[in-house]
Amino acid sequence: MSRTRTPRTVVDDAERARRLASLLDYHGRLLPNESHRRAVATSVGTPMPDALRLNPLQPASLGLPSTLRRRGATPVPWCSQTYQFEVPAPHLGQTLEYLLGAFYVQAAAPTLAVVVLDPQPGERILDLCAAPGGKTTQISACMNNTGLLVANEPKRKRLPSLIGNLERCGVANTVLTGAPGAMMARTFHNYFDRVLLDAPCSGDGIVRKSETVLAHWSAEKAVHRSHHQTGLLRAAFHMLRPGGTLVYSTCSLSLEENESVLTGLLRRYGEKAELLPIDGFAAPPLPRAVASHYPAELARAVRIWPHPHDTEGAFVARITKHDPTQWPAADDDAADWLVYRKEDAAVEARRHRLEEHWHFSMPLPSDQTLTVRGEYLCCEPERAADFRSRNLHFIRAGMRVARRHRGYDYLSQQAATLWGHGMKGPSVQLDWPEVACLFQNKTVSLARKAPTRGLVLCRFGPWTLTRGVVGWDRRGLQGLLPGAMHRPVLARL
Question: Which CATH number applies to 109-321?
């Protein structure tokens, strides 16, 4: 049976201009004066600066700040790991550093939500709408890859990008689920230390980055979106433990998707919910006539407008919870779940063989355990087993350390880049032409004989790139890079 494809919405120049004028007029009503309105209109017509966020989980990120400064990049005020370039920096996704997970290509505005969330090592944290993974990887870095980070993404088509980014960035403390927010709330009662809800929205704040927003935006659609956001925020608040922190963020600037959604939460939960101030970030306030329609404490939330910080638009609110909440038909308590038992003897034997071959000690945090999932040896949070036993649309957990093939455990790409700097086993040091050949998926003709045959780590300076196989003559090297990392032309940052 043939399937009909829904045609893309096409907007001609006249319609685009009309919609842009309507959107700018709407945004202008939320600004305090004409000077700010003109600045927003000007910023929408100028390209966004290229930006990236360093990923301290990966050893390849060490030393990059000096490289970025030489290229004219400067840290953003609220996130020292995020850099904006003064001049265009095209093809960041084609660089060696990107492929090794040393940074995530990300605008400055979205990073504020995680800074406000303030994740800590060892905590239980939920990212309720996680794809494509920018904020998830930032949270994991703040947690130093420890604790429990539940990355939930109910839209299946968005999962490949999320999984790819988690693997590339070396994230190992996650449980990946695909449940609707209300389904999760039925199980997790007052459970998480921190919750991030980066809600699906109309995206009217990112029109500067993506003009396709204009093909779909209208004030009526923003109202429609807000109904879904209200339900998600209620679920997120219920799953937050008393005294915890919930961050609600969108890439929308509209009242309907922000203040109106938060007002609904405050009215429903009363004194149990409180908006907290966000320190160290100044933003143009709403005009008094607009702000008067909402509770006064909503002034504690912030809008990131494009013009003061030369980025895209966003909204961030910080919420805490004073008392436990009850979810309809709540029948169990996630806080009573049992911690997964440590690995058994067979798993320990596989671990020992890997450590012996690569001459290292596997650096597992105390709250992670090794287990076997099919052909893979995985390290994952101890509580991951509980997620499998409950109907939460479980997808996967933790990090794949090695894959068993014909009785041998082959180290994963993620484990090689994350832990390779601590491995003293067989390795080959490559020069830049050899690295470029490796990423082109060609057999590398080594300039110097390899010290050994068989399976080796491929290194470039202090970085571990991947695994490879050296031939019998010790002159030929076949890389084992995943296909997604192959590049016909490889650049350097």
Answer: 3.40.50.150
